[in-house]
Amino acid sequence: MIKKSLKYLIIILLNLLFLTILLLFWTDKFELEFNKLVRPIEFLKLIGISLVGLVLIGVLTIVFRKLNVESLKTRIGIVVVFILIINSYFYIDYGMRIYSNKITNSEFREEALKKISNVGIELAYGTQAENLTGKEYLEITKIKWFPKLPIKAENISFRYDYDGFLPDYSFSLSYDLPKEMKVDTMNYKDGTFSKSQNFKVIGDRKRVIYYEGQW
Q1: For range 71-93, the mean pLDDT
Q2: SS3 120
Q3: Given 35, 46, 64, 149, which is the most exposed site by the fewest CB atoms within 10 A?
């Protein structure tokens, strides 16, 4: 009984190890720049699903006894398939992220990362970028909450400062649009939160300046 239980535990641990390797592989420098907690958060998810797997394997062993499944090879085979099924979300999700981050967009993300730097003067942490393309900025918004921009936005720059413990943050963004495009202006304040947007015409372009923050 102990020997069988040990084999089941090894299956769980091997699955956890393999998924952890996949996690480390798809979380590249670009991902970590905008989501520093992604690895510990995802690893906790893997620990959680592994514990669920252990509990469900315990249920399976009861089923094996009731159905008189005595073959250890058959039991292990069923457990392996079962573990793969309950972890299928992570395998599919991590596989897609590896394909996107490491195969199709690897060079693109590396080039975008060169335009990004860390700052931390106003608050504890900060990130800024200059002269991003629309595609590069869109890639960032897949990770971070930053506001979406029109398709024709270019020459994008931003600065994001945040406390890391308190909710205080500031986010400033500037980008160019064709002169003929309509741009709404605003100046909103509610308590400690404020948001504003305005623009100026420079040649055949509109330079849009956006800000939001909480202090």
Answers
A1: 94
A2: coil
A3: 35
Q: Do 204 and 176 touch, CB atoms closer than 8 A?
A: no
Q: Are residues 12 and 84 in the same domain?
A: yes
* Domain count along the chain: 2
Interval 178-193: pLDDT, tens: 999 999 999 999 999 9
Output the average pLDDT for the chain: 93
Q: What count of Cα atoms within 13 Å lies in the side-chain half-sphere of residue 70? A: 1
pLDDT at position 198 over 70: yes
Spell out a b/e string for 82-119, using b for 16 or more CB atoms within 10 Å of the CB, else e.
ebeeebeebeeebeebbeebeeebeeebeebeeebeee
pTM (predicted TM-score): 0.84
Query: Per this entry, what is the length of the chain?
Result: 215
From 107, 127, 143, give the residue that closes a domain: 107
Q: What is the token pair recorded at 184?
A: 């709404």
Cβ density class 204-213: b for 16+ within 10 Å, e for less: ebbbbebbbb
Residues 7 and 89 in one domain: yes
- Please report, rounded to a whole number, the percentage of residues in the chain having pLDDT higher than 70: 96
The mean pLDDT value for 32-61 works out to: 95
Q: Report the distance separating Cα 201 and Cα 211, nearest Å.
A: 18
Considering the domain architecture, whether residues 142 and 87 belong to the same structural domain is answered as no
Which helix or strand (DSSP H or E) is residue 204 part of? none
What is the residue range of 125's domain? 116-214
Rounded distance between C-alpha atoms, residue 105 and residue 121, angstroms: 32
Whether residue 195 is found in the same domain as residue 148: yes
